[in-house]
Design brief:
heterodimer, A: Rossmann fold, 7 helices, 32% helix, elongated, B: 123 residues, alpha+beta, N-terminal domain of TfIIb, 28% helix, methyltransferase (chain A)
């Protein structure tokens, strides 16, 4: 996912960048950033996760910080920001204090993030929304904070592989377009259930055999015969019209 | 693991603290030197974003006097090496950072600064 986020960030190639990893956790995505030669700063609200990151000896600087309280970075500090599966946590209110309400925290997060990023640059935030309303809320607040861009959905039809990326741009630049989400099936084979292949095969066989129309004349006569035998009343008489098709003009 | 590169970007973000909130002052710090790979392109690219005076002051406070007080016009290898050392190899492990304006104390323990704010300080 981090690779995909980096791809969406669209950084200039072969140039080491200075990135912000929001909700770095144990430094999983940080390791990938290290691999790619980028310098980074990670923030996370969980001290235990940061300790794990310390043990893994990642290269970036780590901060214990609540992103809903905003960042204190100087304007134009970072070449980009990524965040993997984090910002849905901003939607929970922990206390009833006004600064703890989701819209307030989101506003604070996006405005300070916007100012911490360089112009032009991008932020790619992958998250798990539980409803469309949440996406709506998050994008509207991001736009109010000055970001351009929008939501990119990878594999929109897959339950498992579906990923929502919020792709935000700082600065207009004019030419910046929201990238397309990945379409189609996830890699074949991997996502299939055990007997799916067999089921598909047998399905093909069944559809090969031509199905007979059940409502033919024979069938109707047989049914009527059956009803009469059972003593059912008002069974229509057989005639030359029984089971005939009506004219198309009817 | 606060390196001076991040310290140079860090300002106080408490409520109402919007002026004179940079740079945060170090206090009672212990530093550790850890070698890092020199990447001249990155350093050169980062130069325009550095707040030079704050960086030199912080470096001197931590006991490194290799940097000149003015940013030099010409960038040579020697200078890049010194700058690289100051920016990326000096890690502050313990201590605190104090905002010069509202004197909020951000404690650093185990290399991780605690940037959390109390409820009444959230803007």
């Amino acid at each position: 996912m981090t690779y995909r986020a980096l791809e969406l960030l669209n950084l200039p190639e072969d140039e080491p960048a200075f990135l912000l990893d929001i909700g770095c956790g144990s430094g999983l995505s940080g390791e990938i950033l290290d691999e790619q030669g980028h310098h980074w700063v990670g923030v996370d609200v969980a001290p235990s996760m940061l300790e794990v990151a310390l043990e893994r000896e990642v290269e970036g600087d780590l901060f214990l910080q609540d992103i809903g309280q905003g960042f204190g970075f100087r304007a134009g500090s970072f070449d980009g920001a990524i965040s993997i599966s984090v910002i849905q946590w901003l939607l929970n209110a922990e206390t009833s204090h006004p600064t703890s309400s989701p819209p307030h925290r989101l506003t604070r997060f996006f405005t300070t993030l916007h100012s911490a990023l360089r112009n032009p640059s991008r932020a790619v935030l992958q998250f798990y929304p539980t409803s469309d309303d949440q996406i709506q809320l998050i994008t509207s607040i991001a736009q109010k904070a000055g970001f351009g861009g929008g939501v990119v959905v990878d594999y929109p039809n897959s339950k498992k592989a579906r990923k929502v990326f919020l792709c935000l741009f700082v600065g207009s630049g004019g030419a910046q377009q929201v990238p397309k989400g990945l379409e189609g099936e996830e890699e074949a084979g991997s996502g299939k259930a055990m007997f799916e292949a067999r089921r598909e095969r047998s399905g093909v066989k069944r559809s090969d055999k031509k199905r007979k129309s059940i409502k033919g004349k024979e069938w109707i006569l047989k049914k009527k015969e059956l009803y009469r035998k059972r003593g059912k009343e008002s069974v229509p008489n057989d005639s030359k019209f029984t089971g005939r098709k009506r004219k198309a003009v009817f | 693991m606060v390196r001076l590169i991040t310290h140079n970007l860090l300002a106080c973000h408490a409520k109402g603290c919007t002026t004179n909130n940079f740079p945060l002052q170090f206090k009672d710090v212990s530093i550790e030197l850890r070698e890092a790979e020199l990447n001249p392109d990155f350093i050169k690219g980062f130069l325009p974003r550095i707040e030079w005076k704050a960086l030199v002051d912080a470096a001197r406070q931590l006991g490194d006097t290799t940097l000149p007080s003015e940013m030099p016009e010409m960038v040579d290898d020697e200078f890049l090496k010194n700058l690289h050392h100051v920016l990326l190899e000096m890690h502050v492990e313990e201590g605190a950072m104090i905002c010069p304006n509202c004197s909020h104390v951000y404690a650093i323990s185990n290399g991780i600064p605690n940037m959390l704010l109390a409820e009444h300080e959230i803007a």
